[in-house]
Amino acid sequence: MPVDVSAEVLDNRRLSPDYSVLLLDAPDIARTALPGQFVMLKQSPGFEPLLRRPFSIFEILRDGEGAPVGISILNKRVGTATRQIYDAERGHRVACLGPLGRPFTVASPGESAWMIAGGVGLAPFATLAEALAARGTPMTLFYGGRSASDLYYVEFFESLGARVVLATEDGTRGTHGRITGPLEEHLSATALELRVSLFACGPEPMLAAVARLAARYGRSCEVSVERVMGCGLGGCYSCVVPVRTSAGREHFVRSCITGPVFDASTIVWE
Predict the structure, then answer these.
(1) 170-to-148, 154, 164, 204 alpha-carbon distances in Å
(2) Nearest 5 degrees, angle CA 155-CA 156-CA 157?
(3) In terms of domains, do 31 and 122 share one?
């Protein structure tokens, strides 16, 4: 069950003028959080913004004995709420509700896991990579952004044994172009008998492209959708996603409780 805590800011690592990693003292959330779940945060007690905002749980913070003591979130400053998160200082308090949502299905033994991240879509993959590493699952991170200044924590994933493939739209780091280009090259070169599961998070056009590639090459694929959420608990219906049932019927579901992780083949992308 989610808990609502007033979490103390342990640190705020400014990675650039736009990106930061906020560390929160939230042991009750850290103890039960699973890869792909999220929290609802509100840094300011005032009315601007009025509602909390969703953030994927980035890291599980641990003490010297390995016990979970907190979480971190990866933040990009783009509006009022994310600016307040970026500006938060050590000792500040943040209203934090979580963990929320449906997590990733960690790859089964004998499978390889390919994570596809676009920009801040990297956020849910730190905990997933740690879970995969603990199982000894071979993994690859396909990580793309507009430029080199949008790519972070590459060494973290490499330290867990992940192979990392990078791409930037301006060509300043890795392959010149979108990350779906290198992904398709690797899919086309990988034998079908090798068991590979895809996991993706990022802008919706990227998720749709990954879903199409997964279907074309016969690979299972889970996507973590990015939706504006008003409550995170299914009460406001602000985060609906169109899906198709096994019988072919289309309807809407709330991503905060049915997701944010979905089987990519069930989402109606167009």
Answers:
(1) 8, 18, 19, 20
(2) 90
(3) no
Residue type, 142: F
17 and 82 housed in the same domain: yes
Domain span holding position 166: 112-226
Query: What's the number of CA atoms in the CB half-sphere (13 Å) around residue 16?
Result: 13
- Domain identity same for 41 and 15: yes
* Tens-binned pLDDT, residue by residue, of the chain (270 aa): 899 999 999 999 999 999 999 999 999 999 999 999 999 998 767 666 778 899 999 999 999 999 999 999 999 999 888 999 999 999 999 999 999 999 999 877 789 999 999 999 999 999 999 999 999 999 999 999 999 999 999 999 999 999 999 999 999 999 999 999 999 999 999 988 899 999 999 999 999 999 999 999 999 999 999 888 889 999 999 999 999 988 889 999 999 999 999 999 999 998
